[in-house]
């Protein structure tokens, strides 16, 4: 028959193993290639919504920029100002990223032509310092080590005896 303390120790062993397994970050197996795919857009009223998929390491921050270009003029490249959404210096990879452009604020008189298209450019940002996954893994290692020490010490359930060598408190005056 397994007692409660036996089940507790087994659970602690399993938790310690899981915490140690967390030391292997998923980023070590990730590909460091950054790519923008499936760029498409739609115009609704005075807003343009640009959708794209950003492929890259999930734990890395990316800088994303949007450019308006023309098919008939290879030198035309306009960087819109009034943008919201998944654009700028802190964008994480994923599918169905969206940028919303209020183009009437950039072009109050509208735009003439039908040969416009968008390009989305992304680059991985190298952040200084230690990767946060190492801090998480280090914390997991410390917690796992403490659990292992506590569990493997096999301490008894009796509390330690009171410290000796101190005199008894003085009696009350009568």
Features:
Immunoglobulin-like, 2 domains, single chain, 8 strands, 4-stranded antiparallel sheet
Summarize the model shown.
By secondary structure, the protein is of the alpha+beta class. It has helices at residues 4-21, 103-106, 132-152; strands at 35-44, 47-55, 62-70, 77-78, 83-85, 88-91, 94-102, 116-124.
Can you characterise this structure?
It is a single chain. The protein has 174 residues and is an alpha+beta fold. It folds into 2 domains: 44 residues; 96 residues, Immunoglobulin-like. The protein has 3 helices and 8 strands. The protein has a 4-stranded antiparallel sheet with strand order 1-2-7-5. Strands 3, 4, 6 and 8 form a 4-stranded antiparallel sheet that branches. A hairpin with a 2-residue loop joins strand 1 and strand 2. It starts with a helix and ends in a 22-residue tail after the last helix. 12% of the residues are buried.
Topology summary:
Layout: H1 4-21, E1 35-44, E2 47-55, E3 62-70, E4 77-78, E5 83-85, E6 88-91, E7 94-102, H2 103-106, E8 116-124, H3 132-152
Antiparallel strand pairs: 1-2, 2-7, 3-4, 3-6, 3-8, 5-7
């Amino acid at each position: 028959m397994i007692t409660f303390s036996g089940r507790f120790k087994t659970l602690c062993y399993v938790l310690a193993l899981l915490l140690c397994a967390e030391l292997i970050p998923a980023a070590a197996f990730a590909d460091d290639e950054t790519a923008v795919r499936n760029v498409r857009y739609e115009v609704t009223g005075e807003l343009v919504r640009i959708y794209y998929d950003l492929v890259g390491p999930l734990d890395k921050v990316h800088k994303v920029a949007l450019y308006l270009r023309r098919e008939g003029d290879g030198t035309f490249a306009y960087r819109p100002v009034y943008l919201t959404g998944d654009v700028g210096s802190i964008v994480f990879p994923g599918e169905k990223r969206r940028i919303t452009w209020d183009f009437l604020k950039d072009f109050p008189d509208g735009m003439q032509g039908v040969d416009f298209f968008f390009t989305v450019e992304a680059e991985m940002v190298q952040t200084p310092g230690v990767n946060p996954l190492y801090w998480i893994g280090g914390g997991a290692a410390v917690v796992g080590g403490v659990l292992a020490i506590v569990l493997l010490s096999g301490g008894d359930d009796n509390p330690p005896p009171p410290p000796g060598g101190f005199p008894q408190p003085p009696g009350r005056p009568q």
